Amino acid sequence: METPADARARRLFGGSARALGDLAGSPFRADRDRIVSSPFFARLGGVTQVVSPGGSGLLLHNRLTHSLKVAQVARAIAERLTADEDRRALLVDLGGCDPDVVEAAALAHDLGHPPFGHLGERVLDRLARQRLGLTDGFEGNAQSYRIVTSTEIRGAATTGLDLTAAVRAALLKYPWTRLDHPDPHPRHLDPPPRGATVPPDDPESGSSKFGAYRTELEDLRQARAPFVGRIADWQQTVEASVMDTADDIAYAIHDVEDFYRVGVLQQGAVSAELMAWQRESGHFRAVTGPALTGASRRPGAAIELLRRQLHHKDDWIADDEAFAAAVEHVRTELVEGLLALPFDGSIEAEQYVARFSARWTNRLVDAITVTAQPSMRSGHVLLGSAQWHEVQVLKFVHHRFVLARPDLALHQRGQARLLATLVEALWEWLLDPEEESRLPRRLHDLVELAEAELHPRTVDRISRARGRAIIDFVAQLTDGQAVAMLDALSGRSGALWTDAFVL
């Protein structure tokens, strides 16, 4: 007898050639197995989450452990939602919420992240557009979609991982291209969906976030076809919304956990910021925007800027009472709780961190709701108001006391320069006619793939194909491979047989 999952799979296969039950009894579990068996998934263990795995000398989250935690949280959310009889009809109307689909999408959502994480993403986007002439540039989410649909070669055909339409649709956190799909493009909506906004310093560049390059547009359309008429064409599927929410939850919790372990998050600094705002919130609210920005180093000013930013961007949910309650809850849990005792590596300290993470995860997962008519800035699955504000404050603590540090900026500037130099060196190598037969085989294959898929077939097609191939090639490296490859290309490495060159 056909199960409900199999029935849904028949509608959502989207051209997959394999039979139902291949590998794992469920097509969506088969998708999950293919993702975790991919070398692209394994490489995430060497890719930056915040601090490069090869540079910290410490046990911090990388993209692999982050993806595993997102999958764990996402599945918990999906199982909780589908167990609620009152929500089942709404979930079916919106296209369904299968825990296997959600878990598979969560495992795959960061496959396209390049070396050095979000910094690498920004650098490769700038180089792709300004140096290599690629209108689509680079975007980590679009690169993940490209990997599962195009650049992972299986057998004689280039089919990606051959995933079901449901999982591919669930990967589309931003279900649009950079510039022209769908029509009207989401960046022209008022307000634009989250991620669809245009960078103020580059208004012609299109959306800052997008889910697919134009080379994968037909695949995007096919994956989303079963949801036409159920959700807006710019809106995430329910399963994508679950994955996106789980990503936010995992990020907010484990980055705080990481930098507590390292000793970067200090009780005094975090306490001063939160408590100053609590004491003087009335005063801060009376300060003009420019004056507040100029005094942003004063304790309390930065979190007041956050409060104003939330009202500006997310007035559909931003609430001053909820924000004040969130500041108090984070202060109690973080300042008086986790940060009160320095991490010393003991079993007791590890248990302390584990309890903190479990308590927060359970609190946030239990606050998940589903709505038939979400805000333009939200998905169908979202956190309750109180918990949404708490996540914003947790993320603020991470940005304020980790990402804004000058010592981190020092390393990141070096990493940005490394990637730019590597791209330039590979471009010169690719243009050398005497070296064509000695190019890395994967780079050679990626050039052929890009030449076959790029349209229109204008005179600059070969140049654009080479540019896309270089971006694809560099994006598939780990942090360590990128460093080792540039060392070799610069004549600084004495090593010959390393994993940096088996590509």
Automatic annotation (TrEMBL):
UniProt key word NAD: no
Transmembrane annotation, as ranges: none
GO biological process: dGTP catabolic process
Superkingdom to which the source organism belongs: Bacteria
InterPro entries in the record: dGTPase, dGTPase-like, HD/PDEase_dom, HD_domain, PHydrolase_assoc_dom
UniProt domain HD: residue ranges: 63-252
Molecular function terms, GO-annotated: dGTPase activity
Biased composition (Basic and acidic residues): 180-191
Keywords: Hydrolase
Region (Disordered): 180-210
Alphabetical list of NCBIfam families matching this protein: dGTP_triPase
Protein name according to UniProt: dGTPase
Species, as recorded: Micromonospora yangpuensis
